[in-house]
């Protein structure tokens, strides 16, 4: 009887340890606020390119990127680890994983944001001012932190504003390798067969395969219109495509004030004219001095 009791106790302890390790692994997933709006690990199949070249007229291509949406872990999960997280635990050191509750005020005194945020200290997953502020704190500690732009989202930078042409021309025919084709479409190319990516609004037909090079021709309907979407699937413009010989002429009709999430960051349409739209890639809080009220709600020490 005694041996069976000991064995059951060991098995229970083993199961609880596995459960704890699983929860801790989830908590260790980085949740950087600046990266939430960015597509993660884009492949050749799922990419967005913004190309600016007025002389050559290189086209601007848009595609939907699959975004891995990562949820912020709440205190409920962390508090399910009995005896591990407790008030006063700490102090926080570089490399620890922490969770803070925060409210953010901007210079005019209004609350800009509030919530909870989990990040690994010293890993660049939070803005510098917050990363440094939590060092030395213990669970339950509160702190008010005033962060200058240099340690927050930087200063407004005119070089992050781009003029993007509304009319772009691209070749109807493209060439790629069989390896890239297989990765993109998930199957071998067949001459004469049409293919369509889930984020495209027209078909593409394979016209030839020579020495590992696949030629593809785009086959949209002339004059067709479609929604243009950013990396998160948000519609920011209406697009029109026209056929002119061996070229596709793409016309973009963006929504003024809309935000376009790309692999380069989030750009806001701040101006429009007949030929171009102006995209501002500065962070909305650029040049702002930020005031954070934070409380350390939980943490996992480095190496545990």
> Could you say what the CATH architecture of the largest domain is?
Roll
Elements, N to C (H/E): HHEEHEEEEHEEEEEEEEEE
User: In percent terms, what proportion of residues is strand?
Assistant: 35-45%
Tell me the total number of β-strands.
16
If you had to describe this structure to a student in words, what would you say it looks like?
This protein has helices at 2-27, 75-78, 128-133, 178-185, and strands at 97-105, 111-120, 142-147, 161-165, 167-171, 173-177, 194-195, 203-210, 213-219, 224-229, 235-244, 247-254, 259-262, 265-272, 276-280, 290-300. With 304 residues, the protein is an alpha+beta fold. It has two domains: 2-30 and 71-156 and 286-300, Chitinase A, domain 3, CATH 3.10.50; 159-280, no CATH class. The strands form four sheets. The protein has a four-stranded antiparallel beta sheet. The protein has a four-stranded antiparallel beta sheet with strand order 4-15-14-13, with no helix packed on it. Strand 8 and strand 9 (213-219) form a beta hairpin. The longest helix has 26 residues, at 2-27. It is elongated and about 70 Å long.
Kindly summarize this structure in a few lines:
With 304 residues, the chain is an alpha+beta fold. Helices cover 14% and strands 36% of the residues.
